[in-house]
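Tip: read the tokens left to right.
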């Protein structure tokens, strides 16, 4: 390798390193802003966690003790700084033998459930990940496949049928699809369980059987969006000059669509997939509630209903983190799908 080539390669590596550093710094800043806003919103609410923890009857002395134990007797900025330090070094609530330790990374402590927020989320995260990833695979296969089939046969009965189903999928609420699935497959033909969760490590077959309905419900909603997006994008791409040139060279239509056309369509599809998947990984609230699945979404609903502010803040920050990670993965996929895309 010549000196010029080596310098060019070194410059490219340095540029990639700077781009990666900027993205990490941007993600950290975004999380910091989200955490500050989330903390301010939830901890400036009129609800008092100490009052809820104290119960009834609650004397002023007991209420003050509860506030001191929960570190709520300090100013909101001081509480936020304690929260940030807990992420790095952990924190303790109370003093003496009754003190409660929350190890790092400490996103707070649920006094209602008497456990650190991180532990509670770790118990529920596998359920939500199972729902989100399984549904994402289904909606990508169904949505992109249907969109391609409609685009290569525009204005045909197949095209109209796919678009009609897509409009119906977009227009139908998730909970209604879930209830219809439960009524049909659970109570009419009795072929699928309608609630509960079995861990993958215990019984893979039962794990998949309990998640088929949630997967299909989410896939139906999201696949409708992806089918419309894929069809619209592919119709535009198929009219471009390089597609006409590929056809003029005598390439088979399947190769023209699958390689030259679909590769360009995947860029906008991937850009939408990142936020969608990241949002679902933070908790598929409605789906989990309909099918009684013990995921992050149901945990969030319970936390909101009981005004468990540390748990609400923790799940909100985890959701923001997952969306940021998903967007970072999308950036990497952009570079793989189109080498012209750079940081």
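Filled-in amino acids:
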């Amino acid at each position: 390798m010549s000196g010029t080539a080596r310098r060019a390669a070194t410059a490219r590596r340095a540029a990639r390193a700077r781009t990666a550093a900027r993205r990490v710094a941007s993600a950290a800043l975004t999380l910091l802003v989200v955490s500050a806003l989330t903390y301010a919103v939830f901890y400036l609410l009129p609800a008092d966690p100490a009052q809820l923890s104290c119960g009834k009857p609650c004397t002023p002395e007991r209420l003050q003790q509860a506030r001191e134990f929960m570190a709520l007797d300090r100013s909101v900025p001081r509480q936020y700084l304690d929260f940030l330090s807990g992420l790095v070094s952990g924190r303790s609530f109370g003093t003496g033998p009754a003190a409660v330790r929350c190890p790092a990374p400490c996103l707070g402590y649920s006094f209602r459930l008497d456990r650190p927020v991180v532990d509670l989320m770790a118990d529920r995260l596998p359920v939500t990940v199972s729902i989100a990833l399984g549904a994402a695979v289904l909606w990508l296969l169904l949505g992109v496949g249907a969109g391609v089939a409609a685009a290569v046969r525009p204005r045909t009965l197949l095209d109209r049928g796919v678009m009609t189903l897509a409009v119906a999928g977009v227009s139908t609420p998730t909970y209604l699809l879930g209830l219809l699935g439960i009524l049909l497959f659970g109570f009419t033909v009795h072929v699928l369980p309608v609630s509960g969760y079995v861990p993958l490590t215990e019984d893979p077959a039962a794990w998949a059987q309990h998640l088929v309905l949630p997967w299909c419900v989410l896939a139906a909603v999201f696949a409708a969006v992806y089918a419309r997006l894929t069809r619209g994008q592919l119709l535009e791409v198929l009219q471009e000059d390089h597609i006409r040139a590929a056809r003029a060279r005598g390439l088979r239509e399947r190769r023209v669509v699958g390689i030259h056309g679909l590769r360009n369509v995947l860029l906008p599809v991937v850009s939408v997939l990142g936020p969608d998947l990241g949002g679902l990984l933070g908790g598929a609230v409605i789906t989990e509630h309909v099918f009684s699945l013990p995921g992050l979404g149901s945990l969030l609903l319970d936390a909101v209903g009981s005004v468990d502010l540390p748990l609400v803040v923790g799940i909100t920050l985890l959701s923001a983190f997952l969306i940021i990670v998903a967007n970072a993965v999308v950036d990497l996929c952009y570079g793989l799908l189109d080498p012209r895309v750079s940081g």
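DSSP finds 13 helices and four strands in the chain. The chain has a mean pLDDT of 84.
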